[in-house]
Amino acid sequence: YTSNNQGYAPICLGLEDFYTRRLYHRIQDCFGRPIASAPDAWFDVVERYSNDNNKTLKRTANMSRCLNLGSYNYLGFAAADEYCTPRAIESLKGFSSSTCSSRVDGGTTVLHNELEEYVARFVGKPAAIVFGMGYVTNSAILPALIGKGALIISDSLNHNSIVNGARGSGATIRVFQHDTPSHLEEVLREQIAEGQPRTHRPWKKIMVIVEGIYSMEGEVCKLPEIIAICKKYKAYTYLDEAHSIGAVGKTGKGVCELLGVDTADVDIMMGTFTKSFGSCGGYIAGSKELIQYLKYTCPAHLYGTSVSPPAAQQIISSIKVILGEDGSNRGAQKLAQIRENSNFFRSELIKMGFEVLGDNDSPVMAIMLYNPAKMAAFSRECLKQNVAVVTVTFPATPLLLARARICVSASHTKEDLIKALEVIDQVGDLVGVKYFPAEPEKQ
Ligand code: PMP
Question: Where's the Aminotransferase class I/classII large domain (predicted)?
Fold first, then answer.
């Protein structure tokens, strides 16, 4: 039960998971259900977002305006934007909010074709296919790509949509230790003898699935090492860039750009439009043959209603801004700002003595609370001072690795961030979650 309903469960549901669940319910019982129903601790009902770059939101409970540190609105596009919003409104007038048809039954508008061309070009692949929901992109595409007789090797902290897609595919699933390429290689070695040609292996195909930036940790994937291993063992790579596309890399092109990886080395690139692009939906980008195959066979494409036209227009427009095709340099400014904001916020939290997960440049960072019983207090005390943070534990993370997960946006001002840091500093002392000595102030 998480405050943001991510349902980000570890893949290996087995005995351990069974006991974790029981322990979790015991803790809830002992504390009078502090996690699930702590009044005023969560910002789960939002009355409205403000127009000032979506920095603030209003809760219905006490109508307070809060600084929003929980939203995936990395580049600030989920707000009134001088370039994107008028175009989205125009497309609403021209196409309405729904096509009420699947892509193959009249639901493909010029916007959908333009969107797929833009996405392919932006992520650096020959072709792309888009879906109405990021979650469905993973959970529907994996069964369309892989099945019985094949092997999926998945990072242990992959998102629930990947877990569900992998399970639904019927392929055999193995999990490797989170972000640990040496363990991935161990698992691969167990499954196939090194150097064996593809045709002599016990698996029809092998697919390794990782994320660009992990949404509950903020870690950047060790992609170059993963790719080298996949090449050595002739496995396909599937990269979920939900949290990295648009958010990192010099021109926003994600972890490949950030880490200097050639996109040709990643077989299947997946991403969502619900974060950096301020819209909804998801994409798969890959070779022309792969995308053509998916367009003919993937049930979510054949039978599901196509992306809402204003949402498609919002994505096209935000990509144009990021690429500078709107005639301004706002895209470059946003990218510089999110990098600066993320690195500033992270380094200040570390200086205060918090244990912070995640890597430099990542807009996602986790302040470790460990004890799930501290979640409600941490969240409530921050909210009292109008700072909204998301706190999570099982099943989004292991039970005793509860954390406050912060998402920094390019639309946060330095003043916003300084104010939030002051609040989090006080709350950290109050709740007792600073596990390191604070760095002494420099004179
Ligand atoms: N993949 C990852 C890594 C995610 O974190 C999420 C959701 N945050 C999704 C896929 C699903 O995307 P959406 O929310 O756009 O449906």
Answer: 66-424
Identify each DSSP E strand in 46-202 by its residue range: 46-49, 56-59, 65-68, 127-131, 151-155, 172-176
Q: Could you identify the residue written with the tokens 């509860």?
A: 402
- Residue type at 75 in one-letter notation: L
Q: Is 211 close to ligand 1, i.e. is its CB under 6 Å away?
A: yes
User: Contact at 8 Å (CB) between 317 and 155?
Assistant: no
Residue 282 CB less than 6 A away from ligand 1: yes
Is 404:366 a contact under the CB 8 Å cutoff?
Answer: yes
Matching residue, tokens 């709740």:
431
Q: How far is the CA of 101 from the centre of ligand 1 (A)?
A: 24
What pLDDT, on the 0 to 100 scale, is given for residue 79? 87
Which of 154, 215, 220 to probe ligand 1 with, by most ligand atoms within 8 A of CB? 215
DSSP H helices, 12-82, are 15-30
* Interval between CA 31 and ligand 1 midpoint (Å): 31
pLDDT of residue 8: 32
pLDDT range class, residue 325, cuts 50, 70, 90: very high
Rg of the chain on CA atoms, in Å: 22
Dist. CA 159 → ligand 1 center (Å): 7
How far is 232 from 268, CA to CA, in rounded Å? 17
Per mean pLDDT, which range of 3-12, 83-92, 134-143, 301-310 is the poorest? 3-12
pTM: 0.90
In the chain, what are the domains?
Answer: 15-68+330-431 (3.90.1150.10), 84-323 (3.40.640.10)
Phi then psi for 402, rounded to 5 degrees? -65, 155
365 by DSSP, 3-state: which?
A: strand
Q: Does residue 409 carry a pLDDT above 90?
A: yes
Complex ipTM > 0.90: yes
Of 308, 281, 305, 280, which Cα lies nearest the Cα of 97? Answer: 308
Q: How far is the CA of 397 from the centre of ligand 1 (A)?
A: 15
Q: Give residue 87's pLDDT.
A: 98
Between 13 and 210, the higher pLDDT residue: 210
16 pLDDT above the threshold of 60: no
Both tokens of 133, joined, read: 């929901």
Q: Which atom of ligand 1 is nearest to the CA of 280?
A: 15
Q: Which of 135, 179, 241 to mutate to test the pocket of ligand 1 (most atoms within 8 A of CB)?
A: 135
Q: Tokens representing 108?
A: 């493909």
Q: Determine whether the shortest distance from the Cβ of 405 to ligand 1 is under 6 A.
A: no
Which residue's entry shows tokens 């789960």? 44
